[in-house]
Request: fold
Amino acid sequence: MHKYIGALDQGTTSTRFLILDRQGKAVASAQREHRQIYPGPGWVEHDPDEIWSRTVQVVSEALQQRGQAASDLAAIGITNQRETTILWNRHTGRPMHNAIVWQDMRTGDAVAEFSRAGGPDRFRSRTGLPLSTYFSSLKIRWLLENVPGAREQAEAGDLLFGTVDTFLVWHLTGGPHGGLHITDCTNASRTQLMNLETLDWDPDLLSAFSVPRAILPQIRSSSEVYGPATLEAVCGVPIAGILGDQQAALAGQTCFDAGEAKNTYGTGCFLLMNTGREIVHSRCGLLTTVAYRAKDRPASYALEGSVAITGALVQWIRDNLGLIAHSREIEALARTVEDNGGVYFVPAFSGLYAPHWKHDARGVIAGLTRHSNRGHLARAVLEATAFQTREVVEAMERDAGFPVRVLRADGGMVENDLLMQFQADILDRQVVCPAMKETTALGAAYAAGLATGFFESLDHLRAQWSVDRAWHPSMEAARRDRLYRFWNKAVTRSFDWLDSE
Reply:
């Protein structure tokens, strides 16, 4: 009997491979970062070959930590940064261009063009998504129109498209030699090309965005055996689960019932609420997306609020301003002052996502005085994450019609006690962190484990979930309201920064 299950977690800044036991505890892990490439203002790219190379490395390194072999693994689940778009040659595996990352803003003009022809919500009824630089549809279109030879090769059937899950599965299962060209419905729901009701590519959407169907992967469920890996280190191990990273975190937090919600604090911030089998179309600037689907079962859906820049803001003041040498130092710097000193940082580097959807917004620091110092800026950086989360929670409650009573939190930033306490204070509700904090990888493992019988049932997984830490609100209502009022004022200062031309 297999002792372990593998989870490949390919994120915006790094790739990890975790080996977990039947209790969902990691017994080995390896992680490697990859480069962030910025060809121009608002443009963000990754090297797909580097991501694949990092994947091969971390799989081998994790197995070697405890002398494990492929035969020890029941299956591998994959979770990935969503919307990031890759085109590659089906015969050679070579990318046609760097991956265009979900944060990338180069399609802003196309968003405006498409919006003029039918409004920003012209595709929302079918896809659950507004027109935005965020999703894959316009990224594919940009690549086909701007990379020499791409359109011709796509029409000839020589190119493949995939989000990062698709690219990795294709390589893991043979690449040019029979690799599977598939995705799951959670990732497909983020392309703006899939119909939420049919869970298939929509011909009218493909026509609108000028995307040839031949380049698109087959859409599969999130939890089923797709096929065996051919990569030497894990040869023969079934690939049996695929979930976009935020849906994986929802599963890792065991939010399997309608009304349960989680927030992941990572490069961006992503709050999802399970709405069950009901497709809830947002009136408050949120996204409607697929939560997960097990093989041969109806899909479950979710409302999602996406904030583009949270943990990435900590990285920005580290790398661009040099205020700290390591990200973990942000809390100590913020604690050198009693409060934010009236300073607010709106990190609209790539526009504003939910609930505003202002692609022409840009980052602002407001409220500076001669009194302001490094500590105030550090505190404003942390508080920006909590303020943005409150905006999304309020929008989600209006759409769903009931409150989020407890917020389940995960991601790297939950280690920051100052941030988590401020989050509870500004929300005026409890925030809890599970004992297993790597919920994204855990969700991928759950999907693969359920497909192969490694994990017994959803009830079994729920029973394993437990709270490690909880933060309770302690801020006076008057102070909470005042802070949030000034935050909203600062947000309006970021609007309409770019000229219409």
About this structure: Residues 405 and 429 are 7 Å apart (CA to CA). The two ends are 63 Å apart (CA to CA). The longest strand covers residues 26-33.
